[in-house]
Amino acid sequence: MQIKEEEHIMIHYFILLPLVKKVLEKDFQLFESGAFKVKDPYLDMIQEALRMLHKDMRHIKQYMHQNRIRVTFQENDGMFSRYSYVCRGYEGSSSYLNANLKRQTRHCMEAYFLKTSPLQSDSVLH
Questions:
Q1: Among 44, 59, 105, 117, which residue has the fewest nearby CB atoms (within 10 Å)?
Q2: Closest Cα to residue 119, out of 42, 58, 28, 70?
Q3: Crossing angle of helices 5-33/40-66, nearest 10°?
Q4: d(Cα 35, Cα 11) in Å, to the nearest integer?
Q5: The whole model's pTM is what?
Q6: What was the pLDDT predicted at 1?
Q7: 82 neighbors 71 (Cβ within 8 angstroms)
């Protein structure tokens, strides 16, 4: 029994989007407390990205619940992050190169700054 491509994509974004959220929230704090002459455009852009991100995260969480998918973080050894998942009774695991996660996080941030969802490029949002 294999998991479907759509399920695999949703598991991937379930792992990735909280990382994007963490970076955006940290950047928001840095801009907010920074010595910028005009902060508001940056803060507004980050807030809008966070709104879109939260919408996508709600969609993914609902999908995961409806399809009985659970993801668990296993370890980060400095080079790789490992996760395990259970999907419709099928158990599996994924390893991500941390440098690749960082690159994908940046890609998602760029999509949100352009006011598009990275999930749309993978055709998983309805």
A1: 44
A2: 58
A3: 150
A4: 39
A5: 0.91
A6: 56
A7: no
